[in-house]
Amino acid sequence: MTQKTVHFAIIGCGRIACRHIEAIQNTQNGKLVAVCDTDIDRAKEKATQANVPYYSNYHKMMRDFPEIDVVIILTPSGIHYEHAAEIMQNYKKHLLLEKPMVMTLKQGKQLKEIADKEGLYLFPVYQNRFNKAVQHVKKALNTEGTLGNVRVGTVRVRWCRPQRYYDLSSWRGTYAMDGGALTNQGIHYIDLLRYLCGNVRRVHAKLATLGASIEVEDTATAILEFESGALGIIEIMTSARPDDFEASISCVSENGLAVISGIATNVLQTFSPDPEQEKINSEVFPTVYGFGHNEIIQGVINSLKNRLEPVIEFDDGLESIRLLHALYRSDEENGWVDVQSAGDSARLGKEDESLLDLYRTPSLKECA
If you average pLDDT over every residue of the chain, what do you get? Predict the structure, then answer.
C-alpha cells in the first residue's frame, strides 16, 4: 500500500480495547477511525478515550469508513470466526485477532483460506512474546546461546477467578464462547511454552472443574514431550483461592535455569548463567496487558506499508491453538495424544446458537 497512514477500526469494546487504542496512538503511521460494540455504553466509553465516532452496528461503521484497512476483533472468543469471515468476505479488510484467535483449528484453517483467496493478512495477538524477559530467554535458548538446549519447560498459572467473575457475562465459562482456564487465561502461557521451548510432539492432560459452577475447566495439569526430546509440565488454574499466587514459565536447560514471572511474564526472576541480567531484562507493567501490543500494532503497520513479514505469522499462532486442542483431546481420551494428529476437541468451540445470537450483528438490510 502506498498511503502513509494505516487506518484501524475496533469491534468489541471490552477492557482490552483500551490497550489497543493506546497502542495505535503510540504509532506514527496508525490511526483509529471508529469503534463498535453492541453495548452502546461501552462503545461510547472507548470512543471518548480515542476521540473517534462509535457504532453499535459494524456494518454501518464499515459503510461510513471505507478507508479502514485493518479491523481489530475484540469480541467474545466464540464469535471471532463469524465476525472475521464476514469482514474479509464482505469488506475485504485485514484483521487483527485477539486471543484466542479462533476457538477451533477448523475455524482457523477456514479463515486462512478466505484470507489467501482475498489477498488479506490475519494478524494474531500474542503480546507477551515481546517482553524483555521473554526475548532475553528466547535468544539464550539454542545450541549457541547462554542457556543451551531445553531439558524441562514448565508453566505455572495459579490464579483466582471466583464465581462472580464467570457470572459477569453469559459467554464466560462456556465451551462455545470462552473455554476455561487453558483457553482464556492460559493461552498466552501455552504459546510462550511453544515459543521458548519448541513445538510439542505429544501431551497427556487432566482437566477438572473444582472452584466454580461452570461447564469448562478451572484446573488443568499436563505432561508434555517436545519434538526436541525435552519434557514439559503445565499447571494452569483459576481455582486458586483466595488470591492470584503465581504466573511463571521456567526453562531448565543444559547450562542453567531461567524463570520468568510477574503479572504478565515481565520479570526475569532467575537467570543463573548471569544473574545481573535479571534486573536489566525485567519491566514494570501498569496492567496485565503490558507493552507488547505496541509491537503488534507497529508490526501490522510495517507489514502493510513496507511488505514486511508479520511479527507473528498466522500459521505460527494457529499452532498454539493446535496444542491447546491437543490438551483437551488428551483429557477426552484419557491418555497420550499426538499434537499434530489430535485435531479439534469435542467440547471446545462447540456451537451454541442461542449464545452466538446474543453477539451477532444484524445486516443493514435487516435493520431497515
Answer: 96
